[in-house]
Specification:
2 copies of one chain form a homodimer. Chain A has 374 residues and is an alpha/beta fold. Helices cover 29% and strands 21% of the residues of chain A. The first copy, chain A, contains 10 helices and 17 strands. In chain A, strands 1, 10, 11, 12, 13, 14, 15, 16 and 17 form a 9-stranded mixed sheet that branches. In chain A, strands 2-9-8-7-6-5-4-3 form an 8-stranded parallel sheet. At the A-B interface, α3, α4, β10 and α9 of A face α3, α4, β10 and α9 of B.
């Protein structure tokens, strides 16, 4: 039922729905904008492909000047490396025997693969696997920011950095530190203050490692919410921006450096086309797009052109819209275009993204990393 | 990175994670149990495959005595019909020109395809498409129960039934009515009372149609939460049970006819295997399974063997477990087995389900309808 090649040239309004659509002009401007803004700051860009899971979009990011990409899962890293992306930093540890072997096999095949680590046993296991594979594997140390992943900053991190550095089959390449809870703080100044405060122990850790003579070629972190904040962080090399390519309602509402209310550094390029199935009840519409089309993320999806619509995607198969004011009355079969709440997990529901220019489908972008949750 | 054939024979504890696993003994007992319970009641079973999206499981349901299956989306119906399932009732209307043509083309190819309708324009459009395809298409009328889909019960429904009945290229086959909000009412007696009360206007509609001499061979509705309640509904032909094959935390907690606290008519057969990535913080574990593995459905996923664990799947890529009491202390790399909150949308995240017997992988079940949201 997927419309592939035959969709080229179609109006986005004629696609079977739910359909995930990206406005190519907007996405291309977003991909360019991050480099324009960061030019001369010394901060590079290492986009996180967990957002789009598409080698085609990763290639556009590399062409625009990205240093490489980040991946969240071994399966995503493999999809990127096998489809023309040469440099992939895997931000998640691999801690089982099976995945450690696969990770080092991937490194043997692709020189540009970099693996995150955060505990001593895992460092020893990676060393053993790298030795068995006759390689010297690039690794970065993940530093704990939000009690989720990584080793504690300061001396514990320094000790592990030295441990890696002494392993004959591992190359210590630096650190990563993701401040996940800061990214969606509303208000630029508040976000800036929290981001820099949160990073203080990370910076001290960086300074300790630098003073110890360790290789600090990578100091990676941040995201779309803090991309323009990190340049004052000493030694920081690159931001792991993900959502900036698509944007979503969660990010639009945090405000930016130049616009207090709307984070408009990047344009919302990703939308879901949906169809009205039922309009029998006043102040209410049913659509064909529920939680299997939008996820349950909040705030609710945003219907373009209908600011008073409350879109409820709570049911698996149906969306329900309630409203008091409507700009027009819709008949069954009409379509709506909708900005999703949170782009990353929504893309993970779709096999393809329709690339649209001037409302016409120009390309069908395969989400080759979809479902690669392992 | 997906482990296909090479997974056969492996212990489920050795699968790369997150991995979706079904205990085949439990699932087979569930598939049998619904027929055993309903034997002699006059109520048939038409399982909803939106839950498992797998022709392989649909075949087991048919072999156990199901009348056919229901599908929620045209793409799902196509996957079933093209993979050996002969009778598919599509419970959702198709209201765009493109999908109406596809729906009638599917009916032309497969006699066992039944399409739901709920509005007059759509009936006319289906008639036109069926005529153009030189077929007489089976249709059922969807009756409104929860203000989401369907036409109002009573005279409005009767008028549409007559309209369908008069169409030369459509065959009126009866009605469907899904009481979605009743399914998860906690407590069997309360659920029974609400289900029967909710169905009163539907039953009056059935009686009107029956008295008018219309073909009422299908009167389909209900679900896992009301499967053993519907036999007292006059004319009711079949329950659209879905979740009963897998169960999930949402259904376990509603209670059953024989057990007030636990709905144990069916056994939880579906679990997610997950790996512990980080244990640095007391009372806290990080896993590799977040909202892309579990969805954001509530209540939280249930860790087998650790009743005091609070599993938070709020982040896309990571799960975080917090606890005060733990039955053992886990090291990094150890695995946990987890009952998901809500089975339907979780299955939609995975390409395969590992079929396990006595903890060993016996089959790799392809979720061929995954992502068929159109």
């Amino acid at each position: 039922m997927i419309q592939e090649k035959e969709s080229i040239g179609k109006s986005k309004w004629d696609l079977d729905t739910p359909a995930l659509v990206v406005d190519l002009d907007k996405m291309e401007r977003n991909i360019k904008a991050v480099h324009t803004r960061l030019q001369g700051t010394g901060v590079g860009v290492r986009p996180h492909i967990k957002t789009h899971k598409s080698p085609a979009i990763a290639k556009m990011q590399i062409a625009a000047g990205a240093l490489g990409v980040c991946a969240a899962k071994l399966g995503e890293a493999e999809v990127m490396l096998e489809n023309g992306i040469d440099s992939v930093l895997l931000t998640t540890v691999n801690v089982t025997a099976s995945k450690i072997v696969k990770s080092m096999a991937l490194r043997k095949k692709h020189n540009g693969f970099i693996q995150a680590v955060d505990n001593p046993q895992n460092i020893q296991d990676l060393q053993d696997a790298a030795k068995a594979a006759s390689i010297v594997a690039d690794v970065v140390l993940d530093i704990d920011v939000i009690k989720r992943s990584g080793v504690a900053p300061g001396e514990p991190a320094l000790a592990l950095a030295h441990m890696i550095d002494k392993m004959p089959n591992l190359k210590f390449c630096g650190i990563l530190a993701y401040d996940g809870t800061v990214q969606h703080v509303v208000g630029f100044k508040e976000r800036q203050a929290q981001a820099l405060k949160t990073y203080e122990p990370i910076v001290r850790t960086y300074e300790l490692m630098k003073a110890a003579g360790l290789n600090m070629e990578i100091f990676s972190g941040g995201g779309t919410g803090t991309y323009d904040i990190m340049s004052v962080v000493p030694g920081f090399t690159d931001v792991q921006v993900g959502s900036y390519v698509f944007m979503d309602r969660q990010y639009i509402e945090i405000g930016g450096a130049n616009n207090e209310k709307v984070f408009d550094d990047f344009e919302p390029s990703l939308t879901v086309m949906t169809t009205i199935l039922n309009n029998y009840h006043p102040g209410r519409l049913t659509t064909d797009s529920g939680s299997k089309a939008f996820t349950l993320n909040q705030p609710s999806p945003l219907v373009l052109g209908e600011p008073d619509y409350n879109y409820i995607a709570a049911a698996d198969e149906y969306g329900v819209i309630t409203f008091e004011k409507s700009n027009k009355s819709y008949i069954v079969g009409e379509k709506l275009e909708i900005i999703p709440p949170h782009c990353d997990p929504i893309v993970n529901l779709y096999d393809v993204i329709y690339g649209v220019r001037n409302e016409r489908v120009e390309s069908v972008i395969e989400v080759l990393g979809r479902g690669k949750s392992q």
